[in-house]
Automatic annotation (TrEMBL):
Record-linked Gene3D superfamilies: Phosphoglycerate mutase-like (3.40.50.1240)
SUPFAM superfamilies documented for this protein: Phosphoglycerate mutase-like
Source organism superkingdom: Bacteria
InterPro entries to which the protein is assigned, alphabetical: His_Pase_superF_clade-1 (IPR013078), His_PPase_superfam (IPR029033)
UniProt-recorded name of the protein: Histidine phosphatase family protein
Length: 210
């Protein structure tokens, strides 16, 4: 089993149409914006010609839409894996902010008491466990080739942190996982050799309406 290279790419979905600026989390009905669709198309071009033999996405609409151009360019079906889904968050449906948002409502403050777990949602350790299982499934499915897993910022960042032995709790502003970015886990057999990161879409669609 050793001596065979496999790459698992963790791809964050493109920009979402969210004019009200709410924390949408796992809520249905939040698809890509016009700019997000351009990002997804760019990802399709990015993986065109790559040795991708397995394509899987979170079941949420924005991830499935982001995976569609990759499916077109690779000729692969889009598998669905619930382990790639966005992190559960008790603030879903509310706006982030101080005045009219989450931080401005005293009833929410008790849920902010422990940022290390975190107290407002799915524990970081649980996210790491499910993402590790999804990555291992993708590695086995694409053994000797490349897999593309389309998901969400927080789970991808937690998977990245767990892979390199970095602590899981963090300041959300410090995540290096831009829209439509690609975090790549390089394996030799079962051993993780390296983690790479690229932003193939750059500033694509700047100025396009959300």
């Amino acid at each position: 089993m050793s001596g065979t290279r496999t790459v698992v790419h963790l791809v964050r979905h493109g920009e979402v149409h969210n004019p009200d600026g709410i924390l949408y989390g796992r809520r249905p009905g939040f698809g890509l914006s016009e700019r997000g669709a351009l990002m997804a198309a760019a990802l399709g071009e990015y993986f065109d010609g790559a040795d991708v033999t397995y394509l899987v996405a979170s079941p949420l609409e924005r991830a499935q839409q982001t995976a569609a151009p990759v499916a077109d360019s690779t000729g692969l079906p889009i598998e669905s894996d619930g382990r790639l889904i966005e992190a559960d968050n008790s603030f879903e449906g509310q706006r982030w902010g101080v005045r009219d948002g989450i931080l401005g409502r005293p009833a929410n403050w008790v849920r902010l008491r422990n940022p290390f777990r975190p107290s407002w949602g799915e524990p970081y350790v649980d996210i790491a466990v499910r993402m590790s299982a999804a990555i291992e499934a993708a590695r086995l499915a694409a053994y000797g080739h490349e897999a593309v897993c389309v998901g969400h910022q927080l789970p991808i960042w937690i998977a990245h942190s767990a892979a390199i032995g970095r602590r899981l709790w963090h300041d959300p502003r410090e995540r290096i996982c831009a829209l439509a970015s690609v975090t790549s886990l390089h394996f030799e057999g079962t051993e993780l050799l390296d983690v790479g990161y690229v932003e193939p879409c750059g500033d694509i669609g700047e100025g396009v309406g959300a």
